[in-house]
């Protein structure tokens, strides 16, 4: 679906906590077609309000439920200090919005979507996010519950990389979104919303990148293999180009995303650096000697220098395809493993506020039992800049004691500095 | 690529005819993050200015050319009277922007893109557009030349369905977008831009639709075949469902986009109407008797009533797949042919202004030799509401006499009322 991005200001005002949360971040259109507008238009920061305006018209009966829509769109949230991909005044995302007949169904949907995001992060982006529930303080403006995936970046800051909200009946009550159930009763619908944005691109860059540039997990790399032909004398060119074409064709037919850079305006050395910076996982070099030997040179982006370089890899189609596919799998697995190791070695289990302060001051994440108040949570933020990133779904067994108050705690929470 | 949608007002002002053309249609953000902005921000009506702002930074040398980018985005143009899909305050489009070293290369690119749009219209949307060049009066604000594809809707109004512009050096001079050529000379780049929008969706609806709803050409139909199972008694269900599953699988494996509607909340009759309204090209019904006969009932969306209905089409996989593929091809060809016949029977060749007035008053398009002034063109608009849609690329041979002035005319132009 696609909804208008200009939302009448009066829509935003209907859900009390929603307008409270978003009003400092709004961009407002006040002039249109040369005239001052009677009602200001909000450039959408998120679409719950305008979606509910339409859901109210579309939903009459339980037969219309569940109603589940998704849109890919730009959204605007005014930022004082921007940071490429991570905090931008405008960003791109997908936002899903659903309406259900029961709370249970809405809760199931919200959980399912955070699972989808978690799987995507692990299996495709090789980012070992920690899924969990947000604290009340950090819950989305207008939601009853917010689920999140939290990722540790290379500088150890936490990135909220995707969220899924159980909105309860907050928006359906504000907008009168009702349905007649199977027994003829009029009820308000139960809703969810969930989103993942271009911020995730920043997450990929900052999880895997190094000083040479990007390092893209093979499964999401637009180019998986870059082929750089090398020749010096004019008569070498024809034979190298022929071999390059053949290797490209072999890999393409095997479903590998491959590109040849045969530009004569740039040197091979320039190209090596360029595609390293672009994060291409595998580089193949082919020179006249390689053609003679019916082999190629294969380099891994994630293993620097000679260690990542293999000479004499056969050009024989089935051997080459198996070799390259194997390397791409190796790189995918290795990037994830490296990120898991990095993450786990930078999370500290704490049992006192002092230990939390120490962990945070070292730039690490702190994990510990927590059942203290919202006020205590804000105090931690004020004194350490760390916030509760989530109550992770994966919880240690046994009884726990809140590290702040000493009271019993049902869950551990993860604290960290974030973007 | 993706460029920001908020463009500083000062950018828009840099190209004189651009700001003149677009300023009446702008939406302006004047408040951000709760504060009055120092410089108003334009919500992009098109992106030439912000693209050139970046091209100026990115382009240094002939090695950087051609630079060709595309973005899929929303754009905003203030409209007093909106019309779904055709004139909307916000719409979605792709916009391409290119920079070249020579005028010839830019002209070739602009022509290539209008050809791409023409092919898409004919081959996929079954819309027999007329490609041509816009008159000076109708040329894009900031372009030297605008190419267009013009489509005749069901009410015989003309729809400008896609455009491609040769921008010359207008924006590169305004923004100082320069490059060093192979001889070390500094030159301004030559540019093009081209776009097709969600307006095209309106074109599809209004070319093929009828009183029962949409009629989608099979090549672009999201659902090409809808299967409606029919059973009355409980014991019929299992056998019908089994046959439906098997037919769905057969068609899916053959690459046909097929959907089954087995909801028990709606009757078959409701479903028939629903998927006709949605424009699904082919409907398959399967009831208990069909299962016994190992056959299905096939209906065409574009042929109403019994004439479009075939009974006893065999369920045998290869026969069924061939039959359905054949029907989809028939429908695609038939929709295009019907639209061509409609178009051609509603274009009148005129040799005087009186004949033009008569044709236009009958709601038809008028085609005739034209070499009169911009003022004459505006007079025609004022007196008949018709504008020059294009000088079609396909021109009659021989000498011609302008139907307005009697002077020699090199080309015929097409006049019509438009949206």
TrEMBL record, chains A, B:
It is an enzyme of class 6 (ligase). Keywords: Aminoacyl-tRNA synthetase, ATP-binding, Ligase, Nucleotide-binding. It comes from the Eukaryota. Residues 1-217 form the Aminoacyl-transfer RNA synthetases class-II family profile domain. Its EC number is 6.1.1.15. GO terms for cellular component: cytoplasm. GO terms for biological process: prolyl-tRNA aminoacylation. PANTHER family: PROLINE--TRNA LIGASE, CHLOROPLASTIC_MITOCHONDRIAL, PROLYL-TRNA SYNTHETASE. This is proline--tRNA ligase. It comes from Zea mays.
